[in-house]
Structures are given as structure tokens and as C-alpha cells.
Amino acid sequence: MELDLTQDQKEIQALTRDFATAEIEPHAAQWDRDHHFPRELFGKLAELGLMGACVPEEYGGAGVDFLSYILVLEELSRADAGVGVTVAVHTSAVTLPLLAYGTDEQKSRFVPPLARGEHLGAFALTEPEAGSDAGAIRTKAEPAGDGWTITGAKQWITNGRYSGTFLTFARTDQATAGARGVSAFILDADHVRVTRDEEKLGLNSSVTNDIVIEGAQIGRDRLLHEENRGFRVAMTTLDGGRIGIAAQALGIAQAAYDVARAYALERRAFGHRIGDFQAIQQKLADMSTEIDAARLLVYRAAWLKQQGRPHTEEGAKAKLFASEMARRQTAEAIQVLGGYGYTKEFPVERYYRDAKITEIYEGTSEIQRLVIARSILGLTERTLAVKS
Ligand code: CAA
């Protein structure tokens, strides 16, 4: 068993941390306040190879391993979780499934512009009446000529307004309810119309949109994987995506801990540094322990994925624990800072707001528990697991 990062992994971690410290962290509070999406930043990240870190070089990426990419997400999220989710969805939820399921033609056409950061990717699965129950989607793909006409509405689409490629799920078999009649399609920006910019509790430097698809005409070249087998594309994409969101939660928690620790060593009360009091020491000890535990779960899941081994259960465990830990420990960081923690003078209130979403998107904590329970109990019947 080897718990050290490799030299290459350490280098990309350091590169991302240096970039994030210089170019992201100093602006994060302002971007949060202004709800500013830093579009220009993604060009700079692309120059460093970070918009396609784990994409093979032949497709325009940096060709590093999946764990290195997870380290990138952790470091970006430590500086600004909105930047973290933008890169996570772009890569894990769009570029990687195109690589995994695309034909040679689809890979060489759609992947390089994404990996080079020329445009962003969005994952269009969720609908107003299909969130946790993703198999309930109603967006239709009806046969038309040699392809399909796609019509429907999608909700909470990260990167929607700035995206050039939408991995979109639609029902191709109208007679079959649930997951079995769904297919995956690759749409462009001109196939969709953005109808709403969501106002959120946090993550204000990322964009979240409602979109509509109004009779988009597409050919067979836009079908990803087999017809009516798109739900598998969605599920395996989320298996990997959840490791990225777990890394995002980990980065946010690490940032909150760093501020709380520094504050505890400086702030004085009752004639001592507050870090000299056991009440504060115990909080910091718990924070540090839980962050370590989350990190091990996240890196294990990433390692399994990069070995090509099953990682559904391990990814769900990593996301479940890291996201709930981040919510708990960002709240504790506010507590360490007391009144200052509740103000905008320090970033911990932002970390707290940003952490909350990690328990919700790419599958709520309740869905992660369902996935874990199915795996450990060997349940395959949908009804059994959903009802239990
Ligand atoms: N890998 C491969 N295949 C899988 C799979 C997996 N992990 N999980 C399910 N499947 C397959 C099943 O084998 C089954 O295949 P067959 O039809 O061939 O038998 C098919 O998919 C349907 O599976 P289920 O019957 O298990 O499906 P279900 O309807 O019970 O749903 C669920 C399962 C786990 C609840 C699923 O709906 C789910 O994950 N829901 C949460 C959705 C989610 O995470 N949404 C996130 C939106 S994206 C987002 O948040 C991105 C962002 O912007 C940040």
C-alpha cells in the first residue's frame, strides 16, 4: 500500500495551488458578492492544461491521471468552490463521458475544444420533475429523418449560459417509462435557449441555468452510445462526477480549517490565544481528523477509478462523507471565529454557504445512501431499494 502522491501528482497539485493562490483566491470574495462568473479565468486554466487535465494529449488534454485531476479540483475549490464546480462539471460530466462512450469521430470532433477550454461543457439531465428520480425525464427525442427532434426543458444546469457542448438526456422510447427508454445526445449551444439564471445560497461565481430545447434537429452523429442506453451513460458519469464533488467539498473544508487554525493562533481572549483553550483545540482536532478521513475516502475512490476498477460504492461514500463533513466543519469554523465568522470580513461564511450544495447536487446525501445500501446489500431491484 502506497499512500504518498507521486512526483507528478505533487507537481500538478503545487501548480494548481500556486495558480489558485495568485489568481483566484484574492478575487473570490468579490466574485461571490458580485455574482461574477470569471469567464476569462478558464482561458488561463486552459493554458495550464487544467481544463482537460486527465484527458489524453491526443485529444488536447494534459494526459495526467484521474487522481491528479481530483487534486486539481480540490485545490481550485479551496480557493473558490464556484470555479471548482465549473471545472468539475465541464470535465467529469461532459468531457470524460464523451471520451468513454464516443465514437472515434465524436471524440476527435467534440473533445479537443473542451479539453483546450475553448468552450465549456454542461450536463443536461435534471428536469423540473426529474431530480433524484433521474429516470423520470420527459424531454423527448422523436425520430425525424435520419435523426431526432429534441424538445424539452432542463433545470439547474451548471455552466448552461456559457456552455458550447451539452451532454443531454432525452427519452427516445416514449412507450417505456423510467430509465430504459432514455438516450444521451451531444448538443451545441445553438440547440438550446437559456431561460433563467438561478439565484443561489452560495457558489455565486458559478452559473446555474434553466434551459429549453425547442425542436432541435439533430442527426445520428449526435447520439452518444446506443439508443435507449443513455441512462447507463448518466449513471457511470455520475459515479465519477461524485468523486469530483467530494474533492470540491474537501477543498472547501480545508480552506475553512486553514482560516480557523490561523485565527485560533492569533486571536486573544481572557489573556490567552484562543487556541490555548481546550474548547477550541477540540474543534480544530475534530476538523483536522474529519478532513483527513474525507481525503482518504476521496483519494481511494479516485485511485479505484483510475485503475478501471468498480467505484460506484466508494465514490458515493466519498461524496456522502466529504459533503456532510464540509457542512459540519465550515459551521465549526464560523464558531471558532465567533462574530467575525458570521461577517463578510472573513471567508468562512462563504465556505459554509458553498459547502451546503455538495450535499445536494450530483445526487443528494439520501441518494448516496441509497446507492451505498444497494451495493452493500446486493440489491438490484429498483423498487426494493427505493422503498427501503
Ligand atoms: N453504473 C452503470 N449502470 C447503472 C448504474 C451505475 N452506477 N446505476 C444504475 N445503472 C443502470 C442499471 O443497471 C439499470 O440498467 P438496466 O435498465 O439495463 O437494468 C438502469 O441503469 C436503471 O437503474 P435503476 O433501476 O437502478 O435506476 P433508478 O431509476 O432506480 O435510479 C438512482 C437510480 C440511483 C436513484 C438514480 O436515478 C440517481 O442516481 N439519481 C440521482 C440523480 C443525480 O445524481 N442527479 C444529479 C444531476 S447532475 C448534477 O447535479 C450536475 C451539476 O450540475 C453539478
Low-pLDDT stretches are none
**What general outline do the C-alpha atoms trace?**
globular
pLDDT averaged over residues: 97
CATH superfamily of the largest domain: Butyryl-CoA Dehydrogenase, subunit A, domain 3
Report the β-strand fraction as a percent range: 15-25%
Distance between the termini: 37 Å
Present as ligands are: acetoacetyl-coenzyme A
| Biggest beta sheet attributes | 4 strands, mixed
**How many strands appear in the DSSP assignment?**
10
What order do the SSEs take from the amino end to the carboxyl end, as H and E?
Answer: HHHHHEEEEEEEEHEEHHHHH
Q: Radius of gyration, Cα only, in angstroms?
A: 21 Å
CATH topology of the largest domain: Butyryl-CoA Dehydrogenase, subunit A, domain 3
Number of separate domains? 3
SSE class: alpha+beta
Named at the architecture level, the CATH assignment of the largest domain is: Up-down Bundle
* Biggest sheet, spatial arrangement of strands: 1-4-5-8
- Count of helical stretches: 11
Helix proportion of residues, in percent? 40-55%
Give descriptors for this structure:
10 strands, Butyryl-CoA Dehydrogenase, subunit A, domain 3, alpha+beta, 3 domains, four-stranded antiparallel sheet, Butyryl-Coa Dehydrogenase, subunit A, domain 1, 388 residues, binds acetoacetyl-coenzyme A
